[in-house]
Here is the input.
Amino acid sequence: MTGQNTTNTVENIYDELKKRIIRNIYDPGEIISENALSAEFNVSRTPVREALKNLQNEKWVITIPKVGIQVSNIEVNELRNNFEIRKALESLVITTLIEKGIPEEALEVLEQIGKECETVDTSSLRAIELDVLYHETLWKLCNNAVLLRYLEELNYMEQRWWYYMKKLDPTLKEVGDMGSLVRLTEHIKQRDLDKALDVMHKHLEYYIHQIRSAFFS
Here is the structure.
């Protein structure tokens, strides 16, 4: 196997395992077997070990002596801390986009996502996917790689919380009003910063309230 192929294999395994952790296919605290993964991906243990090392560096897994690799637990305090940082960064995104303006074709993409949001079942996984897609589209429009990286990592952690609670309560709603994303697009289009920030903050507050309520119910 060439160096490039090895790198690609490690990245592919890393991406797949990270997705499984985020979506709670692997439960918090679950032990992951290197041998089982090697057999599943039909590779030696080396790329599996490298992928797990990368996940450990990002705190998605931990190593327990004489036990093995364990999926990290979900910490209650992390949720509020992550949310406060994300709220500040999302505000920066909205402010930046309103100050510099958004191309018409980008607004059309946001409007199209918003229209589907109005008809989706808010307790469906599609609602989560649409919400993530909408926010990621906004983030990328800022053309700020550092900002994008931080927001993506925060969102991955929040998604993990959401899938965890969704697994416990399948009726949990993604947001109370998916139409808020339609209004947000309109406020950005009109370059009304105060209204855009108000909609964004309420949208995020409801999201975090749903998770916290489900967790402590």
